[in-house]
Amino acid sequence: MEKRRITVNEEKVYRMYAFEYQPQGAIAIKLGCSQSTISKTLTRIRKKAPQLFPVLTEEQEFIQLCINKSGFTHQQIADMLGIRKSTLHKIIRTIRQKGAYIEYPKKTLNYESWMDGKVVRTF
User: Fold this and answer.
1) Per-residue pLDDT for the chain (123 aa), expressed as one digit of tens each?
2) Total structural domains within the chain
3) Does a structural domain hold residue 15?
4) What does pTM read for this prediction?
5) What span, in angstroms and rounded, lies between the C-alpha atoms of 53 and 100?
6) Cβ(7)–Cβ(45) under 8 Å?
7) Is 113 a domain residue?
8) Which stretches within 22-84 are classed as H helix?
9) Domain ranges, residue 28
10) Measured between alpha carbons, how far is 18 from 16 in angstroms, rounded to an integer?
11) Which of 20, 21, 33, 46 would bridge 90 by S-S if both were Cys, CB 3.0 to 4.6 A apart?
12) Three-state secondary structure call for residue 96
């Protein structure tokens, strides 16, 4: 039998963080410790078992694609996945914590021909 890489308590913290999308502060309150302790625990787990922290899960990749490339709103993405908007925000926070880039499409002004006679001032 293979020796455990992480302790039972570290596993509990990892499960709350990675699978339940709980922020470090909420985990700390539930376990009766400080957020700093949770942060240090997660860092220790990353060093012991980096395979537990994949770059992004399939769901996270889908969300990142929906935001970066397709420009869907948070509500549209939550509806597609059948989750609450607040849960989506937790997942986005996790994506950012993993170092993945989320870029919201820039809003631009579009020119339409009906605007020709409406120009009041040019820059």
Assistant:
1) 678 889 999 999 999 987 777 889 999 999 999 999 999 999 999 888 877 776 788 899 899 889 888 888 999 999 999 999 999 999 999 988 887 778 776 766 777 777 777 766 666
2) 2
3) yes
4) 0.47
5) 12
6) no
7) no
8) 24-31, 35-48, 58-65, 74-81
9) 8-52
10) 6
11) 21
12) helix
